[in-house]
């Protein structure tokens, strides 16, 4: 279903770009280089960049020059490169977006930083926490921006959700349950099934953990109470699905929060071969002292979302939504005016913050390196608790070979 959402995002952004005029590009705009010709590129970076006055589609790299040339022609990049390193050797490029398989994020993000480029790196940030530490350290040393592309966190709806929880209007957070599944499942041969490329549902569907950590933010992960993987039949090291129970501690009063996380790259259909679970979008439910709060489609709220709040005492439910402005962006002046635009995708809001950060300005919201490290530490801990190996670093695999 997530693939369907991506296609829908692509279509939505395409229509939006026809309906809304392309802005005049600043002659001093940041020159963007894209590493890989991944299928996510149009939705995650190319269309958002098209509508951003301060970003210029400069170059795209592929392991195959012909593939790079085709992509450059299709999306109007000025240049195409037949290797990722060639792109990094171009001194004109200011910012780099990395959409390689997970296991290559660290290598190319580190090489980009060493080449003096700011980095927007796809999720999950790295293969493991050790790599995340090293990358964050490197970015600090070089005084460059290096961000994990957790686009959903930039959307106004995410901040409405957080404000509802943080206000404590409904009491403390007691329990959370986050889900991300694929039904129809991820196709065979996909990068997500490959252990060496840091595949697995906990890695790919890292959103469920991200929703959770966002909801309980500030709380410390105390322990993994339980983690059970359903292994992939062709490689037992890859978690086709993962069920985990995490325990967080809220430092303000020491109360405990139990968090269920369920990811599944091959979710059983509702009716076999007839009806996949297309309605089961990545979402999170939060129980507080007084209410049950549910954020439906937290991953791609720009397409559709709601936040429902059901009062435990009265049983009454009220619904909220936020497509622009709101607690985070409401007072912010953006390249789309005050509060952003209602048709902006999560990726467009993300790019807005990323470019402002690169420009050294204050941004309405940011994902720190420490945040990405904590996220990777939690993933490592889940793998260990489930008895599976932490995803390997490519460099360590090369040494073993
Ligand atoms: N933010 C979001 O919403 C999404 C993020 N993602 C993330 O983006 C990344 C890419 O995902 P996705 O678009 O599905 O990936 P794809 O499989 O479509 O693309 C991956 C690209 O990586 C390059 N590549 C380099 N080495 C390999 C290799 N050994 N095997 C396969 N490809 C290789 C290829 O580009 P080339 O041939 O040009 O070198 C390929 O096109 C992942 O990290 C994923 O987690 C994915 C989907 C959504
Ligand atoms: O980031 C993602 O979002 C959408 C999903 O289809 C995909 O598996 C994942 O990589």
From TrEMBL:
Belongs to the Gfo/Idh/MocA family. Keywords: Oxidoreductase. This is D-xylose 1-dehydrogenase (NADP(+), D-xylono-1,5-lactone-forming). PANTHER family: OXIDOREDUCTASES (PTHR22604), TRANS-1,2-DIHYDROBENZENE-1,2-DIOL DEHYDROGENASE (PTHR22604:SF105). One of its GO terms (molecular function) is nucleotide binding. It catalyses: D-xylose + NADP(+) = D-xylono-1,5-lactone + NADPH + H(+). Residues 37-147 form the Gfo/Idh/MocA-like oxidoreductase N-terminal domain. It is an enzyme of class 1 (oxidoreductase). Its EC number is 1.1.1.179.
